[in-house]
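Appendix C: a fully annotated inverse folding record. The material below is reproduced so that readers can follow the format used throughout the book. The structure is listed first as tokens, followed by the designed sequence.
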């Protein structure tokens, strides 16, 4: 892997790196960068090339949105009222996107009301407890990021992305999960931030009420490729409960060159590890990462 070829932006549930490092950010960075580099390397080797492995720098912002708990891992009952609202809106979008589905009324405030509870029960029955856990963790961190009472969280997270792009000048930016939202806003906010290729992985950007309608700069009807991005590719596992609606990124945003929908991993379709090793991603980045080719 050529130095400077790639950089990443992580997604949900990554505060553990900082916890394991006893709060030392450089140590946490080394750990997550080692993991990302290893996973990408596994995918490259599987593709049959011979590559020089270099660390993949990762914009780490988990501490910017951490609220002192397990970020939704303990279930919907532990969500803040704002996060609960996002969860209700998320499930509502999923339900209305299914042919013939009836909509349940939204409950926008308060503890887990009967309306929201019935929606989570429907979602769990339809998609399983694992999917609900992933979506709950996602909306918990999205709520921390989007909370208008704490705009500094959003600014700090975007600042971490901007700093990596300015300092490392990667040709390719890989943005996973919530990281795709942070990266999109950072790139859209500053036209001086440039990459040849943006790859969004397991992205919730197309969720209209939950994410799309909250983006800054505001999007009116249809979004666009950020000005400093030469090419934008999206990759979504067809079973990923975060990357919905299927094919939605290309539908909601102009300038998306390719929107891959594929079966990447049956059990854990949202994990960064599985996206970073998948054939669809490797096919997009091989030309950038120094194939010394066998």
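Designed amino acids, in order:
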């Amino acid at each position: 892997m050529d130095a400077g070829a790639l950089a990443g932006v992580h997604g949900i549930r990554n505060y553990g790196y900082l916890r394991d490092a006893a709060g030392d950010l450089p140590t946490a960075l080394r750990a997550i960068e080692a993991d990302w580099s290893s996973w990408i390397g596994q995918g490259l080797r599987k593709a049959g090339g011979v590559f020089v492995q270099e660390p993949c720098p990762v914009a780490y912002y988990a501490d910017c949105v951490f609220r002192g708990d397990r970020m939704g891992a303990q279930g919907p009952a532990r969500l803040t009222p704002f996060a609960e609202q996002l969860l209700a809106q998320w499930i509502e979008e999923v339900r209305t996107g299914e042919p013939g589905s009836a909509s349940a009324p939204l409950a926008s405030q308060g503890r887990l009301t009967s309306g929201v509870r019935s929606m989570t029960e429907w979602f769990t029955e339809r998609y399983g407890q694992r999917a609900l856990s992933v979506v709950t963790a996602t909306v918990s961190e999205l709520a921390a990021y989007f909370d208008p009472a704490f705009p500094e969280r959003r600014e700090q997270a975007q600042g971490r992305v901007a700093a990596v792009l300015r300092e490392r000048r990667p040709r390719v930016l890989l943005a996973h999960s919530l990281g795709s939202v942070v990266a999109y806003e950072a790139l859209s906010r500053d036209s001086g931030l440039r990459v040849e290729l943006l790859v969004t992985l397991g992205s919730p950007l197309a969720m209209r009420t939950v994410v799309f309608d909250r983006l800054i700069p505001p999007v009116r009807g249809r979004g666009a490729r950020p000005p400093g991005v030469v090419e934008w590719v999206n990759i979504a596992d067809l079973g990923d409960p975060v990357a919905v609606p299927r094919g939605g990124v290309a539908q909601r945003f102009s300038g998306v060159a390719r929107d891959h929908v594929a079966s990447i991993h049956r059990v854990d379709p949202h994990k960064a590890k599985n996206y970073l090793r998948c054939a669809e991603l490797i096919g997009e980045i091989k030309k950038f990462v120094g194939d010394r080719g066998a």
